[in-house]
Design a protein that fits this description.
The protein is an alpha/beta fold. It has ten helices and five strands. The protein has a five-stranded parallel β-sheet, with helices on both faces. α4 runs parallel beside α10 (189-198) and α8 crosses α9 (170-184). Residues 135-200 form the HTH luxR-type domain.
């Protein structure tokens, strides 16, 4: 069986090398690119595999790369690597058609899980997905305040910022956050944001 191909785009050589080594060890076929333009120049059409790209790069950033791939008719799955605090950018990327994002620094297992999941799905989750419908149902069980906190979290706001807008303490925001995470059964903020975008709530 042909190994699954991952195109890794990152301007940081150390990051490229470590991700390539991890994926190679995990049995993937890996191609690395220093810039989005290099990927666009070298990508066959139709392309196979998946693109794993950093979101913040000089020249063409991850969002622009995603736009250009889609406008060129490339429909292969895209997973975005983001820095801490890049939630609004991750939301924008998913609206453009990225199927997942993963926050740096990530552990090896989290990255491999995200890639396997993206390759199995082949693209963004459809709204008809039963798990997605279940998430929407769970969101419907949130209190008004929990839903407000959810909306602000998905917009990338910190607990301090949310507290200021809602006129409650950051500690109270954390309590609401814990409650809404439990009710929606999202294991972390990344998963919460991914589901919210795919469900059209962000």
């Amino acid at each position: 069986m042909t190994p699954k191909l991952v195109h890794v785009v990152d301007d940081d050589p150390a990051m490229r090398d470590s991700v390539a080594f991890l994926l190679d060890t995990a049995g993937f076929e890996v191609r690395v690119y220093e810039a989005g333009t290099e990927l666009l120049d070298r990508l066959a059409k139709p392309a196979r595999g998946l693109v794993l790209t950093d979101i913040r790069m000089p020249g063409i950033d991850g969002l622009e790369l995603l736009r250009r791939l889609r406008s060129a008719g490339q429909s292969l799955p895209v997973v975005i690597m983001t820095g801490h605090g890049d939630v609004p950018l991750a939301v924008e990327a998913m609206k453009l058609g990225a199927c997942d994002f993963i926050e740096k620094p990530f552990d090896d297992e989290a990255l491999l899980k995200a890639l396997h999941s993206a390759l199995e799905r082949g693209g963004p989750t459809e709204a008809a997905d039963p798990a997605l419908r279940e998430f929407v149902r769970r969101v419907g069980t949130l209190s008004e305040r929990e839903r407000q906190v959810l909306d602000h979290l998905v917009a990338g706001d910190t607990s301090k910022e949310i507290g200021r807008v809602l006129d409650i303490s950051p500690r109270t925001v954390e309590i609401y956050r814990a409650k809404l995470m439990a009710k929606t059964q999202a294991s972390n903020l990344q998963e919460l944001v991914r589901w919210a975008v795919q469900a059209g709530l962000a």
